[in-house]
Amino acid sequence: MKNFHNLIHFTYVHLYGLTSVLFFIVGGVVTFCASAAWRQPGWRVRHLISHFFPLAQWRTPTIRVDVMFYLSTKFTQIYKVLISTFISAAATLAIRDGVTLLLHVHAEQSYGISALLVAAIAIFIFGDLGAFVCHVLEHRFQLLWEFHKIHHSSTFLTPMTSFRSHPVSDLLNGVFMGLFEAIPLGLCAAIWHFSLDDRLLLSSAPNLALGIGPLAVLQHTHFPISFGRFEWLFISPLMHQAHHSRNPAHFNKNFGSRLSIWDWCIGTAMILPKDEPFEFGLNAADDERGDYSSVLWCYAGPFINCARILAGARRAP
Question: 192 - beta bridge partners?
């Protein structure tokens, strides 16, 4: 287990940022070579830089908001992780004890790599399902939408947009993922005697492995990357970009964060052609005055809007 711990530590500390930057560069180069800009005369390096960083978009207030959320996440992320981890650990212990008492099983003290792989895969699937359920609820209920639409208010997608999430929405997502991950964690803990340290590593390792690749970094870019036939299983960047579209025809589609199978199951999956243009951001009804270009409103606005909604509901006959 010591080598396993060292591997996870090395991945977190040394590979996370490097792999993210690498996928961003590769995705940008590939889409540039497939675009019309590649065939334009002139200095191609200049066209390549414009492809990565179109000035017309990077000068807009939405980039400033993304940067501020990215920086503030460094301070708020720890609280979300601690709370969601505590809830997940408590639920895991409850499920483990319940299964042990009900089925009279006795956890094995020793386990090999096969047990770790089975547990990691199950945890990843259940955790992704938890994120999917949370995402659907955030779009279905107005009070939750007020917090979640901060993420949708960005008018141009960059890798920093993935951090543009209200702390309440971020915490809710962490809690749902933790509760769903507790199901396989508790079952596995009843079969194999995983320590608390092992359970935390198992819950983070698969999410990290598939989070630093195209399933997270490239989803929040303007690069129209499709996974082709693999889109029946994974959410491609193009599918997630359609989720951020302000076109009403694209609303409430592609809720998945990594796996697309949940969307296919409930009929919310949508595949768009690479050349179909669309704009990102909220529609006019959700942002009538352009408030979400203000960092202060992005943090305080959801509480104000929720208070207005609740006050209006109490006054209604």
Answer: 108
Query: What's the pLDDT score for residue 65?
Result: 92
Element (H, E) at 256: none
Query: Who contacts 179 (Cβ-Cβ below 8 Å, separation ≥6)?
Result: 87, 88, 91, 130
The CA distance from 211 to 197, in Å, is: 21
pTM over 0.85: yes
Rounded CA-CA distance 63/180 in Å is: 33
Give the domain ranges of the chain.
2-34+74-315
d(C-alpha 80, C-alpha 317), whole Å: 38
Q: Are 219 and 162 in contact, with CB atoms under 8 Å apart?
A: yes
First-residue to last-residue Cα distance in the chain: 62
User: Are the C-beta atoms of residues 167 and 283 closer than 8 Å to each other?
Assistant: no
pLDDT tens readout for residues 226-282: 888 899 999 999 999 999 999 888 899 999 988 999 999 999 999 887 777 788 989
